[in-house]
Amino acid sequence: MSRAGVPDGEAGLAPEHCTLCPRCCGVNRAAGATGWCRASRQPVVFRYGPHHGEEPVLSGINGSGTVFFSHCTMACCYCQNHPWSQACRGDVLGVERLAEVLADLREAGCHNWNMVSPTPWLPWVNAAVETAAAGGRLPVVMNTGGYENVKTLERFAGLTDVFLADLRYADDDTARRLSDTADYTATARQALRWMYEHAGALQVDDDGIARSGLICRVLIIPGYASEALESLQWIRDCLGAGVAVSVMAQYMPAYRAIESAPPLNRRISYGEYERVAAAVDRLDFDCGWMQEFEGETEESLIGYKMPAGSSTAGS
What CA–CA distance (Å, rounded) separates 307 from 312? Predict the structure, then answer.
C-alpha cells in the first residue's frame, strides 16, 4: 500500500493538480485535497448493474451495464440522483474492484459499459477498462451532463466508444441558477463538437446495439422549453442532422425543485412538449428518440427514426 491507504498501483492516478472537469480547481487530490466536486483519492460508486431505461440502442435486450459514480461536476437543483451526485454517497472502489464490476456486467450479458458521470474518476475508469478488457471489451459509454473539458476528452480519447451527452441549457444565467454552472453553454457546445468530430454519427451492429458515435440528450425543463428549442437548432446548424438526438420529457420535481417556486416545481406542460416536438419534426434529424408526454419509464421512449441497419424499435 502507498500513503493514505491507496494501493501502490493506483498512487499515480489521483491528480496532483486536478483539471479533469472545466472548473479546473487545480487541487492536489493525490495529497487528499478536494475541490468543487469533493472527489479525492479513489472512485466512489453508488450502484451498478444492468439498466433497461436508456435509449433502445444502449439497453437492447439485456440492458446497459451502468456504473453510477458519485461526485458530479454539476449541481442541478432538480437532480433525481442527488443522494450520490451531490451528497456523494457510495462505496470506494479501487481499480481492481472496478474492473471486477465491469467483468460482472459483461458476464451478465450487458451490451456495454455505461459510465454515468465518470469525469472526476476518468484515470481510474481508464485503468479499470484496460484491466477488464483482457476478458473481452464491451463498448464504453460516457454518460455525461455535457459539461466537459476538451483537454480531458483528448487525454482519454481512446476510452469512449459512445458518447451519451446532455445539452441541458442555451443560456448561462439559467445554467448558473439551476446547476451552479455559469459557463455551461459554450463549454458543453465545444465538448459536443469534439465528441462528434471524434466519434461521428451513431453506428449500430446487426442487432441494433450501439457500437460508436454520439447521442445528444436534450431535456425539456418546465418554463425553459425555449432553451431546448435553441439547443436543438444549434445541434442541427452546427453539428448537422447526423447527430442522434434523444429528447427527454421526463422531468419531475426532485431534490430542491420540490420546494422551489414555479415553474421548477411542476411537470412540463403539453404546450411546452408540443413546441419541442414540432421543432424535432421540422429539423429532421437522421435518427433519434423522443419521449411521450409525461413518460416516466423506458417504455415511453419512442423511436422516431432509428439508425440504418437497426432492428431495435422503440416501444
Answer: 9
CB 94 within 8 Å of CB 10: yes
Write the pLDDT tens digit of every residue in 104-139.
Answer: 999 999 999 999 999 999 999 999 999 999 999 999
Q: How many CB atoms sit inside 10 A of residue 297's CB?
A: 11
C-alpha closest to that of 165 among 113, 117, 227 = 117
- Our CA angle for 241, 245, 247, nearest 5°, is 140
Judge contact between 69 and 117, C-beta under 8 A. yes
Domains along the sequence of the chain with CATH: 44-305 (3.20.20.70)
Residue entry with cell 463498448: 139
pTM above 0.85, yes or no: yes
CA distances (Å), origin 287, targets 2, 245, 246? 49, 7, 9
Cell numbers 459557463 correspond to what residue?
183
State pLDDT tens for residues 209-219.
999 999 999 99
